[in-house]
Amino acid sequence: MTAVEPQLPVETSAPDALEVGTTATTTVKGRSRVPWRFLGSRALFYLFTLWAAITINFFLPRFMKGDAVDQYLARNRNVTPEAADALRALLGIDTDKSMWQQYLDYWGLMLRGDLGVSLLHGLRPVTEVISQALPWTVGLVGFATIISFLIGTIGGAVIGWRRGSRSEIMIPITTFLSTIPYFWLGLLAIALFSVNLKWFPIGKAYGVGYSPEFSPEFIGQVIHHGTLPAVTIIIASLGGWMLGMRNMMLTVLDEDYITVAQAKGLPNSRVLWRYAARNAVLPQIQSFALSIGFIVGGTIVMEMVFSYPGVGKLLLDATNGKDYALMQGVFLVITLSVLVANILADIAYAFLDPRTRQTEA
Fold first, then answer.
1. Which SUPFAM superfamilies match (predicted)?
2. CB 120, CB 69: distance < 8 Å
């Protein structure tokens, strides 16, 4: 009878990282796919950026010569010195307080949602003044920017996929249109479609005799008045989106995974949208997030050419009138919009590009 040799325990080694995969597409079982470390670091960065922007927003107007009260006194000679001092105290530019105390007071009021009052608008709250101008800018410029981004990105992806075809003639055409100064493009559109053809009104957000209300007649007026400036914005910004997407597509199409996907016999439409365009669109997302400042800030030239009410014209008037509170309120809205848009772009970037999630894998 032969003795049975004892079996030694078999050592189990950890799986090779190269076999398991190091990207977020093969994360460890039970582990969250949400890149919390990446998002946390970006959140800290944006909090610091927000503090720096608000601090600059406070000090920069105060380095300008004069203030809103001086401008008001130049237009109204009958204001007493006591009333002028009371206005400065109301606007937060009281010379009796130190700059540090004014800075702390500004933070305290801002955290409570009080952005002060606007001297140029009859001491109305800044939040009320901005809230009346912001929807017009977001509705017009925001809609036009989104449409331009979608058309340019999709068109650039198709043109890049069909490189060498006749469709590439759209690149020089749209690029040439984007080089035309916007005010000149707007004036040409008014001269052709408003003055000669009389298809669209010359300017304003709605016709005379109408008041803002949620009714089919008023909505029709807004669409009719906003079509011409929206089309000019789309034409002026389309070239950049289309050219950028087309160039990124040409770079992505030379990658090995595109060749492998085509060698497997996958349909061209799937290779185009599932592999090539998905990776080529990543820089476009960041550019679109940066353009949010353009959306909220409005195009001052557009609002001046078409006499359109919006935040851009509001900011111009506040700067000329040295209205500290209104300037700071508009800058704050623009800063918050850009930061929020960039945070959303980082989140979308993290989920679309697995390489940004490797720190969590």
1. MetI-like
2. no
Q: Which of 134, 54, 124 is nearest to 91 (CA)?
A: 124
Selection from 284, 197, 292 nearest residue 244 by Cα: 284
β-partners of residue 230 are none
At residue 234, what is the residue type? I
Burial class of residue 115 in the structure, from the number of CB atoms within 10 Å of its CB (0-12 exposed, 13-18 middle, 19+ buried):
buried
- Taking every pair of Cα atoms in the chain, the longest distance, rounded to a whole number of angstroms, is 123
With 0.85 as the threshold, say if the pTM is over it: no
CA dihedral of 302, 334, 43, 354, whole degrees rounded to 10: -10
Q: Are 308 and 229 in contact, with CB atoms under 8 Å apart?
A: yes
Structure tokens belonging to residue 346: 């980082």
From first to last of its 361 residues, the chain has per-residue pLDDT tens of: 444 444 444 444 444 433 333 333 343 344 445 567 766 777 788 889 889 988 888 887 777 666 667 766 766 667 777 777 777 777 666 666 777 888 888 888 888 888 888 877 877 888 889 888 888 888 888 888 889 999 999 999 998 888 878 888 888 888 888 888 877 888 888 888 888 888 888 877 777 777 777 778 888 888 888 888 888 888 888 888 898 888 888 888 888 888 888 888 888 888 888 888 888 888 887 788 777 766 665 567 778 888 888 888 888 888 877 777 888 888 888 888 888 877 777 777 767 666 655 544 4
Quick one: which of 185, 161, 163 has its CA closest to 235?
Answer: 185
Give the start-end residues of each E strand in the chain. Answer: 117-118, 124-125
Helix/strand/coil (H, E, C) string of 223-263?
HHHHHHHHHHHHHHHHHHHHHHHHHHHHHHCCCHHHHHHHH
